[in-house]
Design goal:
The chain is α/β, with parallel strands linked by helices and 300 residues long. Helix content is 45%, strand content 12%. The protein has an eight-stranded parallel beta sheet.
């Protein structure tokens, strides 16, 4: 594997906002410093956790540009640029490339439920239109479409499609994709990332190269250490490091992401209370549940 492949704990960064929903640029800069200081290996800007679905195209491109600017080459930046319109996805991907992002993360087209052939042609068109490393993103629980391993294997033949974030939590499927795309003479450095914190450790131990993580927003140092141990094949150490995080892996999804993780970051005084409708503040009934998970992870 070449040295430029992004590995480890990759935070799916929240987009900090004021109470009225405006993006808080100063807080965004502070969050990037927080992650660099605490060992996060790479940042995804404008993914699902970043509320990409509620920012318009101009805002989306501006956040990516700011993250690249604030990171200043100190940490790889992956821009979420997926859309359910191929034309829009190409535009967002081009914006990210122009901003200097290191790679793009492209979710499967949501809501319109394309066929496997439609998925193949969609991602192939984006890859051919914009010369930047591109990572596929399969999360059927949110998009209502499931990109099958066979389709991933076809897309892996495209030179600048370099990996996939597989967020089903299905370890057997992850292993299947890794095995299908392991012929380096054909697929180059195509890699798989976990997109499910609860199963990320096991996924890495079976060949994934990292975790695109919600938990890393609040526990960046712990997630970096766990992922590093798993990448090194040290199952005992990875298990020990992952144990205090198990509650976070679960409770940060007690309501739709990023509702719980933004509330937790507010509790940590890292961001202000702000998100955009239809997202809301975490329901009162879950506050203590999330607090207990944070405490178990040593966060408060």
């Amino acid at each position: 594997m070449s040295s430029n492949v992004i590995q480890g704990s990759i935070v799916a960064l929240v987009t900090p906002m004021f109470a009225d929903g405006r993006v808080d640029d100063a807080c965004l800069a502070d969050l990037i410093e927080f992650h660099i200081k605490n060992g996060t290996d790479a940042i995804v800007a404008m993914g699902t956790t970043g509320e990409s679905a509620t920012l318009d195209e101009k805002e989306h491109c501006q956040v990516v540009k700011k993250v690249v600017e604030y990171a200043a080459g100190r940490i790889p930046i992956i821009a979420g640029t997926g859309a359910n319109s191929t034309t829009e996805a190409i535009h967002l991907t081009r914006c990210a490339a122009d901003a200097g992002a290191d790679a793009c993360l492209l979710v499967t087209p949501y809501y319109n439920k394309p066929t496997q052939e439609g998925l193949y042609l969609h991602f192939k068109a984006i890859a051919e239109a914009v010369d930047i490393p591109q990572i596929l993103y399969n999360v059927p629980g949110r998009t209502a479409v499931d990109m099958l391993p066979e389709t991933v294997q076809r897309l892996a033949e495209t030179k600048n499609i370099v990996g996939i974030k597989e967020a089903t939590g299905d370890i057997a499927r992850a292993v299947d994709i890794i095995e299908r795309c392991s012929d380096t003479s054909l697929y180059g450095d195509f890699v798989l990332y976990s997109g499910d914190d609860a199963t990320a450790m096991d996924c890495i131990l079976k060949g994934a190269k990292g975790d695109i993580s919600v938990t890393a927003n609040v526990a960046p140092g712990a997630m970096h250490a766990m992922c590093a141990a798993a990448l090194a094949g040290d199952e005992a150490l990875a298990t020990k490091l992952n144990k205090p995080l198990l509650g976070l892996h679960e409770t940060l999804f007690i309501e739709a992401n990023p509702i719980p993780v933004k509330w937790a970051l507010t509790e940590m005084d890292l961001i202000k209370t702000g998100q955009r409708l239809p997202m809301t503040v975490l329901s009162d009934q879950y506050h203590e549940v999330v607090r207990k998970a944070m405490h178990a992870a040593g966060l408060n």
